[in-house]
Amino acid sequence: MAAALTVARAALTLLLVCLLVFLITTALPGDAAVIAAGQHATPERIAELRVALGLDQPVWTRFAGWLSGAVRGDLGLSLVDGRPVAPLLWSRFTATLFIAVPVWVLALALGTPLALLLGWRADRAGSALLAAIAGLPEVVLAGGLVVVFATWLGWLPAVSLVPAGGTAADRPEVLVLPVLALALPAIAWTARLLRGPVTDVVGRRFVTDALLRGVPVPVVAARHVVPHLAPPLAQAAAVLAGGVLTATTVVEAVFAYPGMGQLLATAVGTRDAPVLQGLAALVAAVVLVAVLAADAVSAVLARRVGAR
Fold first, then answer.
1. pLDDT band with cut points at 50, 70 and 90 for residue 122
2. Which stretches make up the ABC transmembrane type-1 domain (predicted)?
3. Rounded mean pLDDT of the chain?
4. CA-to-CA distance for 36 and 209, rounded, in angstroms?
5. If we measure between CA atoms, which residue out of 55, 67, 46 comes closest to residue 28?
6. Residue extents of the structural domains in the chain
7. Would you say 304 and 57 are in contact if contact means Cβ atoms under 8 Å apart?
8. How far apart are CA 34 and CA 83, in angstroms?
9. Which of 10, 76, 87, 285 could form a disulfide with 274 if both were Cys (CB 3.0 to 4.6 A apart)?
10. Exposed, middle or buried, 235 (CB in 10 Å: 0-12/13-18/19+)?
């Protein structure tokens, strides 16, 4: 019963996100017909395009039509070029994963030991540095990385161009700067988030008793501290998945990388509502699945840790 209620809440959240995005898109000045017709189009031509694109229908009718198709896996056609939205989203989503997955792995793999180090030593200076890095805008960090590694040193390309018909795997060097621009603040954010739980666990009696018995610090950390970090780490991983996926928008724009971020910017500029709806539904679904999975995993881990 609890599981069914959780899934129902997630489905309702997804529906509300899609509805909100649809209403915001509708409220934007202009529409796909106006933009497609051009600056010197006549009102009659714009009206013809609105009818052809289905924009003459009421808002709720259009949303209901999109929703009924989305339930069947049909996200409609792009208002700009008439291409099916679902394959377009999938190709851009897989391209974005080339950036998002390495960032997510690096944030967890490096942020966790960094949190252990800072939490164990109660390093305030290190925590302040992490706060500064975590709060640094991705666009500023990306620009600085381009200046250093592309302009001054010439080691890496300043623009992440992907070969036509290929993927980023064909030119992995184009991923280095976008991944770094996202990974550095993500690592700092993860370390700051886990520092508090680390400090709490380190101060508990079973940790101090182990240290007094002469157990080496690395062994105490691995056997006693890390298991108690599993629940908050699972939650951090879920939040980080959604955060990284949405943060790629800025970085992809800076490096001209053909992922979801570039598609989002184009769809907003052309008022391509089906593409915007599909993007919102995809990102919201990924975030909701990650959060639900993290809740389930953290609950299981909390029971196991409590039983020890």
1. low
2. 93-298
3. 81
4. 71
5. 55
6. 15-71, 85-307
7. no
8. 19
9. 76
10. middle
Residue 55: closest CA among 300, 287, 286, 272: 272
| C-beta contacts of 136-140 below 8 A and 24+ residues apart | 136/184, 136/185, 137/250, 138/181, 138/182, 138/185, 138/247, 138/250, 138/251, 138/254, 139/250, 139/251, 139/254
Q: What residues are paired with 87 via a beta bridge? A: none
pLDDT-derived band at 109, boundaries 50, 70, 90: very high
Q: What is the CATH number of domain 85-307?
A: 1.10.3720.10
Rounded Cα distance between 138 and 126, Å, is 20
How far is residue 11 CA from its own chain's centroid?
Answer: 19
pLDDT in tens, 286-302: 888 887 777 777 667 66
With a CB cutoff of 8 Å and minimum separation 6, the contacts of 219 are none
SS3 222: helix
Reported pTM: 0.82
- Contact between residue 69 and residue 18 where contact means Cβ atoms under 8 Å apart: no
**Cα angle 301-304-308, degrees, rounded to a multiple of 5:** 140
pLDDT in tens, 57-75: 888 888 888 888 888 888 8
> Within 2-134, where are the H helices?
2-27, 32-37, 43-53, 59-71, 85-121, 124-134
